[in-house]
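Sample 3 of the quickstart, ligand nicotinamide-adenine-dinucleotide:
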Amino acid sequence: MTDQRFSNVAEAERLFALQHAPGNLQRLKDSTVKDRLERIRRIERYLLDEHRMREWTEALRLDLGRSPEESKVIELLPVLVAFRHVYVNLREWVKDQPAPVPLAMAGLKAWTRCEPKGHVLIIAPWNYPLQLAVLPLMHAIAAGNAVIVKPSEVSAHASAFIKRMIADLFDEADVAVVEGDVPTTTALLAKPFHHIYFTGSPAVGKVVMRAAAEHLASVTLELGGKSPVVVHKGFDVRKAARLIAWGKCMNTGQTCIAPDFALVHADQIDAFIAACAQEITRMYDPAGKGLESSSDYGRMVDARNYQRVKGLIDDAVAKGARLAIGGGLREGDRFMAPHVLTGVTPEMAVMQEEVFGPVLPVIAYSGLEEALAVIAKLERPLSFYILSNDKRATEAIMRSTTAGTTAINELMATSSNPWQPFGGVNHSGLGKSGGRYSFRAFSNERSVQKRVWGTLAPLKPPFKPFFIRWAMRLARL
Ligand code: NAD
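Result:
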């Protein structure tokens, strides 16, 4: 990377020291809900300002070839929903939460107080560069922390926009952005942050967790993986194709919750492929001018990812997979048409790593156990999709699998409800985000007990067997 903006070790050191100035954390900790909400509203106003909106949608067009419309739908809408949720609920979240006490602890009053964790580092990916920097940032502010955000250097235009926005809106002592490459991120990770919120690949997630272990910093790891979609026999294949083609093509397949591969009953494969082809045309090429001329269809983020995903197609085809849909590839502008592969087997690279591009491997199954056996061999996914009209089969699939999130007869809905926890499990992530879950991730949940009457004296030495017997009886009530 030749861009000077991306080697910023000295800047990282400066901002870390600045945010550690005496009294800084206390000032943020003492900030009122009104202060915090006002700071969050600044971000919302900035993003909605017509001129700024042109700037950030253009940045995303340059980085990901995305249309402004797609960026507004997939990047801004979730942010607006999450902001609204915080406006309505923050007052409740910051209140001390009373807790009951067991009979054996009678005389104590108990409550839990959420206090800011302190110094927070947010590391964002390139695929939804705005949303995935702004959402954790907003929740970290809501919880009263000092924050350093490190956007991805791969989405360079979005990174520059985020840097400008934060510089325009905040004092560096409260929120600062360090643009940066791997050495810059490594320098940041060596610092004793109190919490690190990382969104990215499982491989880098491990790097982050190892670095966090040095300071015993808590982490939230929002990672990825192979999210399956099971199309149960009898489910309307046109409906399945409509949902899957949309999920797979959104942001050119570069979405952490995209359906990674599909399991379709052998009897329905041909109809499913035909319906996928129709659906892709309906969405992106209704006038028959060629999909590459559609302003609604994006591009691979960079040459490395273009080559990586092309390599998955080539490897699968070389090992015997059939290219049922596809062929449109143009390296110059990183255009990659949607590809559908059939006859895919577990030893193909496309079934061993997250696809993260517009390529759908389709695996035929004859019985549900066969489909579940394919899934059981893979790491636990971030999202799991079930398309089925059969309640019992749906429940059986749910019971025999584990996933961070699940959507039934819908796709891509798994990350959008701020009332529910979003996040993976093991390889697909650690910790949860969204609404209150994000607020908690950025808060230390401090439990407090106050003696209001009584005493624990009978349970202190010298021990009296009579009192111990009574305490044990009480404990079991
Ligand atoms: P990535 O792991 O390559 O990079 C993420 C961030 O880590 C970037 O800011 C990058 O600069 C930094 N980074 C990269 N290598 C590093 C290293 N060696 N040491 C320290 N920092 C390093 O991920 P990506 O390619 O930006 O994003 C794609 C991945 O993110 C996919 O796996 C996708 O599923 C996942 N993802 C998950 C979610 C979620 O919410 N769970 C959302 C979006 C993307």
